[in-house]
Structures are given as C-alpha cells and as structure tokens.
Specification:
Glutaredoxin, about 120 residues
C-alpha cells in the first residue's frame, strides 16, 4: 500500500506543472525507449512538461505504479489527470486526441512541422 508521505510527494509532483511525465531518465537523456517516444511526442507538440526521473528513487518508481493503478513507466499526467503510458500517448498523438486533450485543458501546444 502506498504510504502517505509518498502519495503526498507524488500529488505534489503531479500538481507542480500542467504536464508531468514520470519517466526513466530525463527529457534530455531518456533511459528507455518508451520514455523517449513520449518525450518525442511532447516535444513535437511543443508542449512544456516536467520530467520526473523514477530511476533516482526506487520507492517512487514502484509508488507511481500503485498511485495510478498502471503497471508501467512512463506515465503522463495532464492538469493532474493520468492520461496513460507510451502506447496510449502515441495512439492519442496519431489520432489527434492528444492535441485535443491539451487544447481542452488549456495547455499550450505549438506543433513542429514534420513527423514525430
């Protein structure tokens, strides 16, 4: 069970920015292919986001999975709401749903030209 201190810490991280990505590595240096894909999608959309490196803290790495009831990392949160992992984010990006979600939540997007 997720302890209260860790839950509060995750709550604070999720609330700290409009778009938060719990990932392996950093946005500049992703340390897993799935995290790299989500970074690439967000970068393509021109969305500012905060990356939280779960490799820095094993309790956070396990705790975020329990927090969201989602078994894998990366995990994307927009305006405090869990969106999904790599496959969901990639699919939402390809269908335009991710851009719609960002727009509907008031998150600024500035898509770059070309394909992600």
């Amino acid at each position: 069970m997720l302890d209260e201190a860790l839950k509060t810490r995750i709550d604070d991280e999720v609330a700290s920015s409009d778009v938060v990505l719990f990932m392996k590595g950093t946005p500049v240096f992703p340390q897993c292919g799935f995290s790299a894909v989500v970074v690439q999608v967000l970068s393509h959309l021109g969305t500012k986001f905060k990356g939280v490196n779960v490799l820095d803290d094993p309790s956070l790495r396990e705790g975020i999975k329990e927090y969201s009831s989602w078994p894998t990392i990366p995990q994307l949160y927009v305006k405090g709401e869990f969106v999904g992992g790599c496959d969901i984010v990639r699919e939402m990006f390809e269908t335009g749903e991710l851009m719609e979600l960002m727009n509907s939540r008031g998150v600024e997007v500035r898509p770059s030209e070309g394909v992600a």
